[in-house]
Amino acid sequence: MGTPLPEGIVAVVKADCPTCRLVVPVLGELRAAGVPLTVFTQDDPAFPEGLDPVDDTGLDLSVALDLDTVPTLVRVEDGAEVDRLVGWSRPHWEKFTGVADLGGGLPEQRPGCGALNCDPEVIERLAARSTGLRSRRLELARLEDEHEAFYERGWTDGLPVVPPTPARVLRMLEGTTRAPDEVVAVVGPDFAECTVEKAAVNAVLAGCRPEYLPVVLAAVEAACTDEFNMHGLLCTTWFSGPVVIVNGPITNQIGMNSGVNAMGQGNRANATIGRALQLIVRNIGGGRPGEIDRSTLGGPGKYTFCFAEDEAGSPWEPLSVERGFPPGASTVTLFAGDGPRGMCDQKSREPESLARSIAWQLDSVWHPKLALLTDAVLVVSPEHARVFREAGWSKARLRERLLELTTKPLSEISAGAGGCAEGMTIQAGGVKDALGGSVGGGAGDDVLIPKFFPDGLLIVHAGGKAGLFSAVIGGWARGAVGSIPVTREVKP
Amino acid sequence: MSTTTAPTSTDRGGEVRIYLDPTNERTTITRSLAPRPASLDGKVIGLLDIIKPRGDVFLDRLEALLNEQGLRTLRFRKPTFTKVAPVDLRHEISTKCDVIVEALAD
User: Fold this and answer.
1) What is the DSSP letter of B34?
2) What's the pLDDT score for residue A425?
3) Which residues pair with B44 in a beta bridge?
4) Residue A95 half-sphere exposure toward CB, CA atoms < 13 A
């Protein structure tokens, strides 16, 4: 405590407490009897009248004494507490103060009230004031609508946000061991530093629970790498946004959905982790639609697009393991993607037949006649995965077959072919160069053009147990020109 | 922290509510455009291709028209249209050119 306790007897009261009001005459009697008494008030600075109350509305003294009840009497000797009494009890007060016949006409005893420093709301405020949080503070008056105030300041994605009170941000920060002032990433287009604290503020806005914060931080780190190129992804006229795929034990620990409706609404972790990333891009990075974000049509995934892989039910190794992380590691993988496009095949029971259905759907990414421009994520549902499992197809084998099936002769997909002006215009030699000589020759002068680069197909397993449907998430511009998928480990 | 706010009596009465700013807290700087030259005579004109499709077609034609008028041009290319031009490229353009024309979209 900053100031020493006054010698003698300290009484702490609040005007809101009936027992405190009851004992006001007794305090007067003590003062008249020459007891060295100092009265502190927790709420009304003028209460109790005539007793020269000391203002403790800041609750410094109450916190230092760790009060739980008012009225409380504390005996102080040599600057230290030596005894304490709570509530009103005539015999106890008489014994404590050494003054007889106190409180004539008062009841024999009354319990006290809860001290103000124990009020749940006040506890949060008290915690918040000593945090060292650096974010600028916004004060709103009682009659201001907080949600309207946040909209006016441009803090939201168009949906309401959770008000970022200091107490909520403190609770959010409990979700990580990282220091609030640690810089997580530099976020474009403003290239502003995002600290753990600022990420936490936005995670509060998004509706995250504290245990989601490490996933949010890993996603921000991954998004803001030069490889992932969040800045370019934000600026594009294309539909894409950051798609967050989460692997590992963290998904169960925080209750993420990898099953029924995995890419849809209704799961708090899925919904708010993806949203927090987008709010950070907006609020820290300064990326706003109509300004730097120039997407022609956008897509609902730009609110949030985050889901977990169903590893337990998968016939294959998890995406994280495929991307070089040990089994059991929790990771986020960022993919610059559009919304999911559904793929129906209810008849195939053989992997070759099913692969052909998937390949047709993959052909449609961007345009059936455009190739080598983009990557894609294939989300295989449990019922489709069963076909591959029962036939013993590994993920690598499925990917290899899909790459073959989506490879087309240039004559079929060139600009103008099939009565359509759109299509590939690159020369065969150029394609060979771009692929490092991996393009095989076709019949005659024709060449075969793969739709995807060998590392351009990510395959994950998710979804409900019923439904012979899988999904393709088409990508944005691929590789060094656009975005390269990035995986980061989730750290506590 | 000097910015922390101790609770006051008004806090508890609910008259003032405090929230933390989720933004980068920067103040936007508005920069004015560089002065436009009255004439292109004697100026070096930079032509920047951001490598969007057909940007080169546009700049080839523009360059031919400018050269026909006896104007001097220099060509530049960004490594990719999806990222900010590298600082070295921006510096080179600013030191070598008086004006710049950028071919933006496909």
Assistant:
1) P
2) 81
3) B72
4) 8
Which segments of A224-328 does DSSP mark as H helices, in order? 230-235, 250-253, 268-283, 319-322
Q: Is B12 on the interface with A (CB under 8 A)?
A: yes
* A225 in contact with B, Cβ within 8 Å: no
- Which domains are seen in chain A, by residue range? 8-118 (3.40.30.10), 147-407+450-489 (no CATH)
**A:355-414 residues touching chain B, CB 8 A cutoff:** none
- Among residues A14, A257, A260, A241, the alpha carbon closest in space to that of A116 is found at A14
- The answer to whether the beta carbons of residues A460 and A485 sit under 8 Å apart is no
Other Cβ atoms less than 10 A from the Cβ of B64: the count is 10
CA-based nearest distance B74→chain A, Å: 24
Q: Do B20 and A165 touch (CB under 8 A)?
A: yes
Q: Which chain B positions have a beta carbon within 8 Å of A150's beta carbon?
A: 19
Between strands B44-49 and A486-489, the pairing is unpaired
- A366: nearest Cα among A345, A337, A335: A337
pLDDT score recorded for residue B30: 83
Cβ–Cβ contact B8 with A under 8 A:
yes
Mutate to test the interface with A, among B23, B30, B51 (most CBs of A within 10 A): B23
Rg from Cα positions in chain A: 33
Q: Among B1, B25, B82, whose Cβ lies nearest the Cβ of A232? A: B82
* pTM assigned to the model: 0.79
* Omega before A36 within 30 of 0, i.e. cis: no
Do A334 and A305 meet the contact criterion of CB atoms below 8 Å apart? no
Q: What's the token pair of residue A13?
A: 């009261």
Inter-chain CB proximity B9 and A45 less than 8 Å: yes
The strand order across the sheet containing B99-103 reads B72-77, B44-49, B99-103
Cβ atoms within 10 Å of A129's Cβ, excluding its own: 18
Q: Tell me whether 0.95 is exceeded by the ipTM.
A: no
Q: Confirm or reject contact between A183 and chain B (CB < 8 A).
A: no
Q: Sorting pLDDT into bands at 50, 70 and 90, what band is A379?
A: very high
With H, G, I as helix, E, B as strand and everything else as coil, classify residue A483.
Answer: strand
Tell me if B75 sits within 8 A of B47, measured CB to CB.
yes
What are A404-421's pLDDT values in tens digits?
999 999 999 999 999 999
Q: Which distant-in-sequence residues (6+ apart) come within 8 Å of A206 by Cβ? A: A161, A162, A272, A273, A275, A276, A279, A304
Q: Does A164 touch chain B (CB under 8 A)?
A: yes
| Helices A382-391, A351-363: crossing angle, 10 deg rounding | 130
The runs of H, that is alpha helices, within A312-421 are: 319-322, 351-363, 382-391, 395-405, 410-413
Residue A129: list chain B partners with CB under 8 A: 4-7
pLDDT per position as a tens digit, A334-356? 999 999 999 999 999 999 999 99
* Chain B residues touching A167 at Cβ < 8 A: none
What are the extents of the domains in chain B?
43-106
